[in-house]
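Practice set, problem 2.
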Amino acid sequence: MTEQIVERRKSSDKQRAAYAAAKAAPTEHVPRLVTTHQVRRQVHGAGAIGQFNSRLAVVITKGVGTMLAAYLFVLIGLVSLPQAWAAFIRGDTFTGVAWLSQSFLQLVLLPIIIVGQNVISASQDARAEADHITLTTLHAMNVRQLQMLEQQQNILKQQQAILEMLEPKTPQVT
């Protein structure tokens, strides 16, 4: 029974070609570090509108994704708390629940979630850079090992040629 290999990665044709080239000629492959800045153009495009959208999204995310924004949104949410509490006491649970979910939870949790995502992203970037250094070092070691194996093959071929020259010729019987 043969096992079928299923490709689960979603990579571009360019990426697959680079991978095949690296497998075919490992000594010629040069590891590269892919940064967020390089990938940003793939999200919204490299045109003027795409660059504007990317910059605007990053500026807004950096502004809203701070704990200062979270504290500010808590204060904004607390402004309407007295009316929500009064409605809740009168028996209008809908208004109390609506305030809790719409005015408070969504408003406050949004920046906190963004801050958490930024922390996770920073740790992933640091890990990627460390992995890149490790993989680059391993690649250099692998290339050196391949060169040494090639040198050893050449030495073995030379030794074999010398042994063949030193081997006595046996006369042929006719």
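Problem 2, part (b): a different protein.
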Amino acid sequence: MLWFVRLPDMQQPDKMKNTLKAAPAANAIELKNEKSTKAKRILLGVDVHLRGYQAARKIDDGVIGVVDTFRSEVELLLHIERQRQRAEQVVVVYEAGPLGYTLYRKLQAAGVLCYVCAPDSAQQRRKRRKNNKIDARNLTSKLFNYLNGDKEALPLARVPTETQEQQRLASRQHDQLVEERKCLGAQGNAILLSQGFGSWSNWWRPKVWAQLSGVVPAWLLERLQIWADVLKILDEKICQAKAALARACSGPRPKGVGALSQMQLRSEVLDWSLYPNRRKIACLAGMVPSEWSTGDKERRGSITKVGVPALRRIIIEMVWRMVLFQPQYKPVQKWQEVLKGTNPALKKKAVVAIGRQLIVDLWRLETGRVTAQELNLVMTGAQ
């Protein structure tokens, strides 16, 4: 026999009140703790893009939190300002890219310590997973390791001042104009070759154009005229840019080194005092030997070419002029026999070796470590 017991009305399931309280979320607990105690340091790794910013945060020695997304730079700056109220120090890092150094300068002006590093996706390629949030978390982890003594964790970029950046932009714009002129000149020359008229060097210049007009048919001249007009404008702009850079150059320089080359060299180096030793300045030009050594075996190869390509080109041009104008320069004398030889491969190696020593000597000269007389260099220009 079954017995049924009726419960009081207040204990009926349909009339019972739920008195259970939900446990507070983890983020709410963290926020409460942050308000009660101020952190010593907050690290922010920011993945910067034109249409958004992703920022990962690490508080003291805690884990890296959830990545926040911001639609504009203003929202990111407000977020950083809120972090400054919660910690004694806020450190930010982001990768150098097309957006330049405006964010860095704004943070520095606001009193926030900021680093700019070179882009590195080696870890993401190894794992075959890459997105903005992963990049932000990796930047935060690398920043933590860097601040705790691992100086190789974060490959820092050289951040120029506004004046240095303006000078570098002027120098690089000159080189871009020259490359554009080469490209258009080659296209016009390709048309002449395809129509059986051979190769014409500087075909848009007045003297060569006059000769070309008597050989080439009218329809082909009409096609070439379009590029010739653009090339004449480029010639004019290149001359103006070259003159402006030469006027900006001041101080003594080695004989054979033109004012344009000297100014372009300075604009790429930025500040000679940034480099503590000769290896650093040689690495900037990518003119140090590659190496693959292990144990007792030592193997070195050709130069790494990992530095600034424009700087390496300027130095190589300087070397050939130094051979002509300063044959008494010690590295030139050392490789004199090779330069007089007929082996082009050995000549190339000799020029690279002289260039590596030249940029080191220029660094020593600019930083006051040696004098021009000690280097056996003849100087020109204003003293």
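Answer key, part (b): The longest strand covers residues 39-49. The chain has 15 helices and nine strands.
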